[in-house]
Amino acid sequence: MKKTRLILAPLLFALLTFFTLPAISAFAKRMGMSDMIGGAKTSADHEKLAAHYEQEAKAARAKAEEHKMMADAYRKAGGPLIEKLHFDQHCDTLSKSFATMAEEFEALAKAEHEAAKDMKK
User: Fold this and answer.
1) Please, are residues 60 and 102 in contact by the beta-carbon 8 Å criterion?
2) Rounded to an integer, what distance in angstroms lies between the CA atom of residue 90 and that of residue 98?
3) Domain region containing 97
4) Is 91 within a domain?
5) pTM of this structure
6) pLDDT per residue over 18-44, tens digit each?
7) Helices (H), the chain
8) Which of 1, 46, 86, 120 is deepest in the core (most CB within 10 A)?
């Protein structure tokens, strides 16, 4: 039991760090998104927004796949602690959330492409 704790504690710390730092960084970057959205007056501005959303969608898809693989790894590792704490289910939920996020970013990108096209008319 102590050995499992010694392994899981650093793993949980690493996971928390891994997910928290990018979120803080992303939040700081998003502060400029409001300005970009409010200042989008040209077709090129909307294309830049679309490109940003496409990048976000790509990153979210990668995270969805990463969590899918993590869930599979937890299931493969098995054991009473993993069963008790449902690590695989948490990863499955995160995978679905990231996939949904990717779909939303793709919808935003599509809308921005449409806005860019409409501005060219």
Assistant:
1) yes
2) 12
3) 44-121
4) yes
5) 0.72
6) 555 465 455 445 558 888 899 889 999
7) 2-38, 43-77, 80-85, 87-120
8) 46
